[in-house]
Design a protein that fits this description.
single chain; alpha/beta; two-stranded antiparallel ribbon; 15 helices; 12 strands; about 10% strand
Length: about 400
């Protein structure tokens, strides 16, 4: 079983997956110089030892997925720095740094992802695309395919489409990612419009985020979500994604701002505040949590803490369900039928259900629904007997609702 196959099994079972934090801005934070024309891609050439350390630190902090420094490593990004012909080398060394970190950690279950953005040259001192420097679609497509396939050849097990917000380039990036045959996750970026509605990150056009969501293919995308987006915009974006995508969801925000070629670590969200958002996103049904530009190790440790707490909560509900399934509980509790309804356990004739025959509504993947159901059961009086069980459940409700 490959690392990604094992990860996908966990996702399908409703488990929470912890991603890493920023890679490019973490290189800057640790002293690697950013290229004035190409940003963080060229930094791999002289700083792959720092990259390896970054990946190793995220793995130690609890990341299940680490992302290679390939976001800005395409030929179209490297051209202005005179490094277009070294794109494959940069992608290769970036992926190798992540693979070496995983090997050194001894945690073979960690998945190494290649990042594929649709980034094009940005005007120096700004975060805005320079329209005069956007290449032809043919050149963009060739560059995207090169990054994706080089990442695959080097050993990446997943392609992360990151910061999708411009329709034409998004389509080209999706095509390139899917052409590898690797699993693909779709990450879009959003902002709050002047009308209060969620828009695509695109600064040249006021584009509803729904127009980017419609570009998620009907097949071939394992996970979709929102990233490189302010934490306060993510829940609303997730709700928009749910209207068109029924699969697992991801959320990893940024914090601070970009002025080419440097990230400005200004007003960075605190790990505690980030943790509060993460807990809300988990309640919203998000399974993949992590961080993007500006967020680092302390944020990922907080994500791991939230994931562990939610898993523990799920185990508690499983325990309560097994108690409810026992013949003793059924005999002693006059509200057993209400428990069956509110907890969605099937009635199996006259025989009480066993622990293995409970309705497969996973308490981790569906923790918000469990909270609603249990609360209804308690309010109906169904939790009055036995008292110990109702008290134990009541203690958990506040964390779920």
């Amino acid at each position: 079983m490959t690392a990604y196959t094992a990860l996908k099994t966990r996702i399908d079972q409703g488990d929470i997956i912890v991603l890493d934090g920023a890679t490019g801005t973490e290189l800057q934070r640790r002293g690697a110089p950013m290229d004035p024309a190409a940003w963080c891609g060229p930094a791999t050439l002289e700083n792959d030892h720092i990259l390896k350390a970054i990946h190793a630190d995220y793995i130690e902090a609890g990341s299940d997925v680490v992302t290679a420094n390939t976001f800005a490593a395409s030929k179209i990004m490297l051209k202005a720095a005179g490094l277009a012909d070294r794109s494959e080398e940069i992608v290769t060394r970036a992926v190798e740094a992540a693979l070496k970190a995983r090997a050194a950690s001894g945690k073979s279950s960690v998945v190494v992802a290649g990042s594929l953005s649709h980034m094009v040259p940005v005007a120096e001192g700004t975060a805005k695309v320079d329209p005069s420097k956007i290449p032809s679609e043919a050149e963009i497509s060739d560059a995207f395919h090169s990054v994706a396939h080089t990442a695959k050849r080097t050993g990446a097990e997943l392609i992360l489409l990151e910061m999708m917000y411009e329709p034409k380039r998004t389509k080209l990036a999706v095509e390139a990612a899917l052409s590898t045959g690797l699993p693909v996750w779709f990450g879009m970026s959003a902002r709050r419009g002047s009308d209060g509605k969620v828009k695509a990150f695109h600064h040249l056009e006021d584009l509803p985020i729904a127009e980017i969501i419609t570009l998620i293919p009907a097949q071939g995308i394992d996970v979709a979500g929102v990233m490189h987006t302010g934490a306060e915009v993510i829940s609303d974006t997730i709700e928009e994604i749910k209207k068109q995508f029924n699969g697992p969801l991801a959320a990893y925000p940024d914090s601070g701002y970009f002025e080419m070629p440097d990230w400005k670590f200004v007003d960075i969200i605190s790990p505690d505040r980030y943790g509060q958002f993460v807990r809300q996103w988990l309640k919203d049904g998000v399974q993949m949590i992590g961080g993007c530009c500006g967020l680092g190790l302390d944020h990922i440790r907080e994500a791991k803490k939230a994931a562990d707490a939610t898993r523990a909560l799920g185990r508690q509900y499983s325990k309560y369900m097994r108690i409810a399934a026992s013949s003793t509980f059924r005999t002693e509790n006059p509200y057993y039928d209400e428990y069956l309804g509110f907890w969605r356990i099937p009635t199996l004739g006259d025989a009480p259900p066993t622990a293995d025959s409970l309705f497969p509504l996973d308490p981790i993947a569906n923790r918000k629904q469990w909270g609603t159901d249990v609360k209804l059961g308690l309010e109906s009086g169904g939790g009055s007997t036995p008292e110990a069980l109702s008290a134990a459940i009541a203690e958990e409700i506040a964390d779920v609702q």
